[in-house]
Amino acid sequence: MSQKEIEESLNLLEKNWEIDPIIREFVLGKLTDVADHTVKVKDVVFHLPFLTGEKKFVLWKCYWPDCHNCCDRQGRLPLTSDDLITIGKGLKYQKISEFIKKETVLVTWQEPGPSGQYTSMTTINLKRKEDETEADDGTHISCRFLDDKGGCSMHPDRPGVCYLYPFSTWLENEGGIARVHATFQFTGDCPGFYLADNLDPMKDVLKEYSPIIYDYNMKSNRTMRESFGSVNFS
Ligand code: SF4
Ligand code: SF4
């Protein structure tokens, strides 16, 4: 996402939520005194921003059900092979092939990596609106499965990726062992970021998300191996 797009998202967000001015500057990439603080929680290495000038961590909590902005401004819903089975069944399809044909769109997109490199991803994405095409990929669409109470009509069988936001995750090869890493994605759409002196307020969230993130990575990796998607490093 470009800085302009993030700024537009933040401006919209600020119509309904009060955003700390320091968080705003940080999300817009205007702060330079940012250190990467890593903390391992179970099988996941989390990378959390530490603002060295402020001596504060950037942490997160979710405001749902008062907020459902991530579903209102959903950019894409890549599916794992497990998702294809559970969501296909949930939408009453007898055959996965029929579900894929009617409810999904095949998309290739560039994923920015943690060290500035780009990875080309090809994934089967759940349509966020019935007439979605590849041209809509990455645009903000209010997801058709968001119900009038701000919940997901597919819950708990919603796409695995929906459980991740606002984290983004990747695998790194550490001496032949695949290690799962996670960090926040700052799209300007989430009001849940705040400043804190230490990691204590987020300890339970990290414990809750660690197995979710680990499982998602394993499922996503298996999806690529089963050729329901592909990944190319450039
Ligand atoms: S946008 Fe952020 S605070 Fe709102 S529901 Fe999504 S994750 Fe929670
Ligand atoms: S599938 Fe459900 S959780 Fe995911 S974006 Fe749509 S409404 Fe939100």
Q: Which ranges are low-confidence, i.e. pLDDT below 50, for 5 or more consecutive residues? A: none
Mean pLDDT: 93
Order of helices and strands: HHEEEHHHEEEEEHE
The helicity comes to 25-40%
Structural class: alpha+beta
Strands, count: 9
- Report how far the terminal alpha carbons are from each other: 18 Å
By oligomeric state, this entry counts as single chain
**Number of helical elements:** 6
Q: What is the makeup of the main sheet?
A: 6 strands, mixed
**Bound molecule kinds, no repeats:** iron/sulfur cluster
| Integer count of domains | 1
Which range does the strand content fall in?
A: 25-35%
Overview of the structural elements:
The protein is α+β, with helices and mostly antiparallel strands and 234 residues long. The protein has one domain (3-233). 27% of the residues lie in helices and 27% in strands. The protein contains six helices and nine strands. The protein has helices at 3-13, 21-27, 69-72, 81-90, 96-103, 203-225, and strands at 34-41, 44-51, 56-60, 104-112, 118-126, 167-174, 177-184, 193-196, 229-233. The strands form two sheets. Strands 1, 2, 3, 6, 7 and 8 form a six-stranded mixed beta sheet that branches. A three-stranded antiparallel beta sheet has the order 4-5-9. The longest helix is centred in the last third of the chain and has 23 residues, at 203-225. The two termini are 18 Å apart. The relative contact order is 0.21. Bound molecules: iron/sulfur cluster (2 copies). The site of one iron/sulfur cluster (SF4) has 13 residues, from α3. One iron/sulfur cluster binds next to loops.
